[in-house]
Automatic annotation (TrEMBL):
It is found in: Cell inner membrane. Keywords: Cell inner membrane, Cell membrane, Membrane, Transmembrane, Transmembrane helix, Transport. This is 3-phenylpropionate MFS transporter. It holds the Pfam family MFS_1_like.
Amino acid sequence: MPAFAWMALFFSAFYFVYGAYLPFWSLWLEGVGLSPQMIGTLLGAGMAIRFAGNLLVMGRVKGAAQLLPVTRLLCLLSLLAFLGFYAGHAPWWLVVLTLVTNFIYPTLMPMGEALATRMVIQVHLDYGKVRLFGSFAFIVASTLVGLLVSHQGSDWILHTIMAGLLLLMVLSWLPLHPAPSDVVGEKARAGLWQTFRDPAVRRFLLIAALLQGSHAAYYGFSAIHWKAAGYSGSTIGYLWALGVVAEICMFAADRRYLSRLPARPLFVVGAIGCLVRWSLLGASTELGVLILAQLLHAVTFCVSHLAAVRFLTRELAPERQIPTQALYSALALGMTVAVLMALCGSLYEQWQGGIFWLMALFALPALWLRPRRELA
């Protein structure tokens, strides 16, 4: 199967699962009787264990040829791990399963991104266009689950995740042509610590952590906050879907309108978007404000992520792309979000929407930081 079609199907299946998990998992946990503080602790612990999973799994990938076999194994293990949530809802069991599932399943994100960036190098894959298939699948899932929660209850969150994981496992075994391979003349893959010691990589990771980490309150508590404000599960699903529609439009416009821009200006735009979006969500739960804030997802997440892809594919040597992708996922998308999500969990009952103002403050320093090209 050609690289574009394979990656489009893979991103579609992965982000279908993510579209059921990310907006609604807190509602599933609430539905089995957990308090907001316990939910925040669990979500934070899950994000923290992603740090270990991303580093340990991605750190063992010795070259591009190993990306596909490891991805297939992770798909199978993810399906088996989520089956455990049907076995019981005791708090200790949920803690164990949260750690296991978050060690395995989220690592598929950096693996998929690593496959995509490798295809950018090998066949000049249009990353923005192929990635929008994942965004569209996210919309389908979040809309579908929102309707199911409204009419059938929160149990259908887990049912939808399981269906998506089964599809993901099947699709991952389709043949990929060309297979991921090292570039002719490419040096041996750099180690994680060696890569992290590069000042340019560390600066990139700090900027990405500020911007992506500031999404912690949104990922963990927007559904609970909006539900408390009187919105139904279906409306919450539509709001999340709207954000991803804006994301799709941005990904679709990437090659035509943004391809000439390097990482630096894109990060600045992402930072400005974060300040505006989190301020809006902190100030009001009026529907018009929420709609505007969700449209800004195209900036806060999408433009910031495109900036990261620019840095990975244009400003790093090929042998450093896989370890830097692992560090990006572990630190910016994992550990930073984990710490902030746990913090938001402890503050939510008292602060309510005020946690979004905290996220705006967290993103603020990114305005003055600029990524640098690799020095080593």
